[in-house]
Amino acid sequence: MKMYWLAAVMLPLILGGCEAYQAKPLNMDADMPHRIPRITVGAAEIPLLRHEAHPFNPDDGLDITDVAILAVVNNPELKLARDDAGIARAQAFDAGLLPNPQLAAGLDFPSSSTSGSNYTATSLGVSYDWTSLLTRNAAVGAAKKKVRKYDLVILWREWQVIGEARRLFAQSYYQNRLAKTLTAYRNLLADRYHHVRQAFKDGNVTLNTSGADLAALAGMDRQIAELNRQRLKTHYELTRLLGVAPDVALPLVGDVMLPHMDKSRIDAMLSELAYRRPDMLALKAGYEAQDLKYREAIIRQFPAISISIARASDTSNVETIGPSIALSLPILNHHEGKVAVEKATRKRLYDEFENRLAGARSAISEILKDQRLLKTQLEAVQASKQSLEDAVNAAEKAYAAGDMDEMIYVTLNSRLLDKTLEQIRLEQAVVGQRIALQTLLGTGACQAFNNEGNS
């Protein structure tokens, strides 16, 4: 009877906190959206862009900030990273739960009547593993640090996605400039070929002259075709980053000018790199979590303690009640293997933090040196291009007046084309370096994560 009463009391307590199973079938028709999603989040609501009040409206085209917003909100890899953070939060919740006590009950039926006893022996006891309480603080602390680590990893991935979105936007922007420049020169070659072909029909030029102009025109067509393939590849990379189907048109608008950072500001950011860049803070949180796991392993070297209290009766109907203590005997296994694993893991995370920090500073230094070279090269190209533009403007007037041979005029334009293409590519390299520098410095990263109190 006592057993039934106990079952009636315990069963609701056991099942009361249980969650019912809910099926979630896989989506066998999953596909990327075939239009730009209508998101309601603005740049001010994204930590990495919080300083920029920028409403998202794709109907007006997508500028460089719109592309960054859409990438952060809709990137498929970021969605998986946020799922990982959800798992970490669930694990932290699990680590914070107190361990359950254990209930043991038993019956002992007499198998012989020689003893003269017909009573059924019973036992009922409750036990608790107190060792888990000793390690609870370390386990909970490690789980919270892990959550913080995942939040920071997401922040860093978001910043990298923003940098990649800006890079692809800039790449598309400069590829479009190259296409316009090449198309304009191709039209010039086509006009010349048209004139030369008519002159050949009239017998005023040789076949060699006509053939050379045709070869130049065909070469320019090949160059434009190759550029168009590169533009298509950039489009596919950008749609993949933005989480939309490849057939979605991306109406990119605006320029790619980014704010210039002076050396004093860069030096200040470099000195704070370990305290502000999300990946460095994530590694720090991971190291702290591992340090707590190492402490937990050390605590578990001590004998496991289980305390219980039991009530029992034997076959002669003598009832007893009393406590008991169970200790594990660390004779064969002192838990030294687990301690060694956790200690070695902590050492690896320590080295990873040092390597990441040193590598980041080295990469930033390389970019700064490269930027100085690019700036010098770009200034020289701009000066040379200006001289060629003046020469072409003068040649255009002479050619229109019939005072210059068409071949000389086309040759000057060809040289100007080469300098223009070189300038565009150098400008793209400069912007690309600025985007990479912003990413490596963690410019704009959420300062809330610098607060050690956050977890």
Could you characterize the architecture of this molecule?
This protein has one domain: Outer membrane efflux proteins (OEP). The chain is elongated, with a radius of gyration of 37 Å. With 455 residues, it is of the alpha+beta class. The chain contains eleven helices and four strands, in the order αααββααααααββαα. The chain starts with a helix and ends in a 14-residue tail after the last helix. Residues 445-455 have low confidence and may be disordered. A four-stranded antiparallel beta sheet has the order 1-2-3-4. Helix 5 (136-201) runs antiparallel to helix 6.
Topology, element by element:
Elements: H1 2-16, H2 64-74, H3 76-96, E1 102-108, E2 121-129, H4 131-134, H5 136-201, H6 207-242, H7 263-271, H8 273-276, H9 278-299, E3 305-313, E4 319-327, H10 336-400, H11 406-441
Antiparallel strand pairs: 1-2, 2-3, 3-4
Helix pairs in contact: 2-5, 3-5, 5-6, 5-9, 5-11, 9-10, 10-11
